[in-house]
Amino acid sequence: MKRIIPVIAACFVMTVLVDATVDAQRTPQNVQVLTDLSTRDIREYMKSVSSGIGEKCDYCHNLKDYASDEKETKLIGREFIRLVEQVNEQVTAINSNVMKKEDLQLVTCYTCHAGELTIISEE
Ligand code: HEC
Ligand code: HEC
Fold it and tell me: What's the pTM?
């Protein structure tokens, strides 16, 4: 019995540690716009951000700390995520008597960037 108790105690401590790690992965640490999303959903969303502007994750992130705001490009990215969210609020508010909901396409980074950081606009 004396030997079993420390083993059980060690298992308990390990379970708590594993839970804490999983939690840290699930709960976003530093979001101001994508506040309704889990970390998993944010990662999915970020794939479309990356391909939409043609840049990898490290363009905006310190890959050891995704929550960090140390890169200026992440701050710019946040403003554009906000812009996209606001535009899409308006898109979904378009009068359904005039245009059917199923005909509406949501705006993404790709809508303007077409897979490139630099916007090419011709008059
Ligand atoms: C154009 C810049 C940009 C790119 C590229 C980008 N991200 Fe992000 N990412 C952001 C911004 C901005 C936020 C914070 C969003 C907010 O404030 O709502 C964020 C948040 C996150 C978070 C949540 C971090 C936290 O606070 O806990 C994760 C995880 C993440 N990104 C992963 C990725 C991955 C993986 C990729 C590549 C597939 C990627 N990001 C590409 C800008 C970017
Ligand atoms: C309504 C059109 C539009 C949408 C949608 C859009 N952008 Fe942009 N973005 C622009 C314009 C215009 C510029 C300025 C382009 C330039 O200076 O070459 C820009 C510039 C940027 C820059 C700075 C580029 C640089 O060279 O410094 C980043 C980063 C960026 N956008 C990220 C994003 C991300 C991430 C998304 C999606 C969440 C997004 N944008 C969605 C129009 C848009």
Answer: 0.87
